[in-house]
Automatic annotation (TrEMBL):
Keywords: NADP, Oxidoreductase. PANTHER family: SUCCINATE SEMIALDEHYDE DEHYDROGENASE [NAD(P)+] SAD (PTHR43217). Belongs to the aldehyde dehydrogenase family. Pfam families: Aldedh. Coiled coil: none annotated. The keyword Iron-sulfur does not apply. This is NADP-dependent succinic semialdehyde dehydrogenase. CDD domains: ALDH_SSADH1_GabD1 (cd07100). It comes from Streptomyces tremellae. Transmembrane segments: none annotated. InterPro entries: Ald_DH/histidinol_DH, Ald_DH_C, Ald_DH_CS_CYS, Ald_DH_N, Aldehyde_DH_dom, ALDH_GabD1-like, GABD/Sad-like. Residues 3-459 form the Aldehyde dehydrogenase domain. It comes from the Bacteria.
Amino acid sequence: MPIATVNPATGETLRTFDPIGPEETERRLSTAYATFRTYRTTSFEERAALLGRAADLLDKDAEEIGRTITEEMGKPLAQARAEAAKCAKAMRWYAAHAEELLADEHPAQADVRDSGADRARVVYRPLGVVLAVMPWNFPLWQVVRFAAPALMAGNTGLLKHASNVPQTALYLEDLFRRAGFPEGCFQTLLVGSGAIEGILRDRRVAAATLTGSEPAGRAVASVAGDEIKKTVLELGGSDPFVVMPSADLAGAAKTAVTARVQNTGQSCIAAKRFIVHEDVYDAFAALFTDAMRALTVGDPLDEGTDVGPLSSEQGRADLEELVDDAVRHGAAVLCGGRRPPGRDAGWFYEPTVLAGITGSMRIHREETFGPVATLYRVADVDEAVAVANDTSFGLSSNVWTRDAGETERFTRDLEAGGVFFNGMTASHPALPFGGVKRSGYGRELAGHGIREFMNATTVWYGPAD
């Protein structure tokens, strides 16, 4: 895949970039490793000041980088600006909290004595150079939620970004440079996917984090496993959105639309499967379908646009195949199900609602990356849980209910990294984020995320006498 900016709204290639060669890759690896040896000894106060300056710069750049993001991957401009603001918020959160999250831990004195020690503690030390392989759908946020904690912890980072967002990738390197981080703290590698294995196998790279597809996750995990290196993987999702009889139906339907079409539906944590109790199914389906049908599809630079184009022509083709397969196997199209008429340029697709989904359909088993929702009718809590868990993914989940017993049941039984009640899944720097099953392993954000790439070191002191 060429490293290029191709406007998804027009199909026009705006800029192309030559990949860096082996010599430049080696120089950047060497710089990252050398910088780590000194950067790891800086204080939390020093790192926080640097990250705070990066946040301030990002706030000032929000309009410009927002337009770049929109032109590279098609996100509506208002959402691109919001992504920049979210990144700045996360930077400030880690700048404020990293020191306490990585503070020394002191076991109970009775346990220390029982170990034969006079005293003992656990200290957190950074691992080193971390390779980040990141996707295009949230081209700032996916990177910052790794970079902010990693840099605050004293690690250095190498970014291999998706090939269709090269300008955003280069912006991030420049952002941290302008903020005053030492050379080598954070570098972008404009390389193809074929170069990842060699970089990950390099002895100077300590660990890797990847957000992306299952195949990409398997490839990185297998290489890292062979090299015995730590990885964190955030892969696909097919998140359920469960609606029970006690729910606020109007609120659930309104939120369901946002949960499905945020980022034009190209989000791992977007709600994709809408599992509705039979007592409220018809009412919810009507509210939801009417709201999906009313969305404005158009130029993502237009402030009035709700749904922009898919990021690539192949992405739209993949989505069309899933919808067409479902229809061939008996699914009903309640709205959408086609390219918008009159739009010959760009990779647009209408917001779509499908009902009558069965296990024979690919869309039941595979992740839908676009503005397509599937509706399921269930008889009770047991069936709702069974349908929600009938997926190889387990990233997050959404449940609408006012019943305390149901809340406990869904919390206990849903197979997911998160359960969001009476709202929609969202990531926040103070809350751990990640999945189970084929959605990956490890956690980002919060204290869990910053400790993923740390060496928890036991320090044991024998008796003084």
